[in-house]
Amino acid sequence: MVARPQRKGKSHDAIKRSDHDPHVIAAVANLFWQDRKVDKARNWFNRAVTLAPDIGDFWTSYYRFELQHGNADTQRDVLRRCVAAEPKHGERWQAITKAVENSHLSVEALLKKAVVLNARYPEAVGALERGDPMPN
């Protein structure tokens, strides 16, 4: 990641090069979140999940953002939209959804589990991918 003063320029360049790439849009949303620009981050997360509703990693970030900065209505809305989209892709999302112990879970439960795992244990994603036991 580049230094904080250069982020705006780099993100602007990335958006110019690939205007409709949902990964770039989600990365910009995360930058706005880090800079505590809540309204802008919400708009960019919404744009990312609208462009690529099948990528669960975006839904996880968006829901985690709403849990931190949103109200109950916005949280329910993101949850409802995620369940309707039934995401199937994303590095972290697939590591969680394809784990045998999660095979019976609904999309709602998977989203909540993904948020908890990614927030508490960023290293747990790698453990899930390797099939290692979960960290305590």
Please give a structural write-up.
It is a single chain. Helix content is 71%, strand content 0%. The protein has a single domain (21-119), classed as Tetratricopeptide repeat domain (Serine Threonine Protein Phosphatase 5, Tetratricopeptide repeat), CATH 1.25.40.10. Helix 2 (22-34) packs antiparallel against helix 3 and helix 6 packs across helix 7 (107-120). It is built from 8 helices and no strands. With 136 residues, the chain is mainly alpha-helical. The protein has helices spanning 4-17, 22-34, 38-51, 56-69, 72-85, 91-97, 107-120, 124-130. It is globular, with a radius of gyration of 15 Å. Keywords: Repeat. InterPro entries: HAT, Syf1-like, TPR-like_helical_dom_sf.
In short:
This protein has 136 residues and is mainly alpha-helical. The chain has helices spanning 4-17, 22-34, 38-51, 56-69, 72-85, 91-97, 107-120, 124-130.
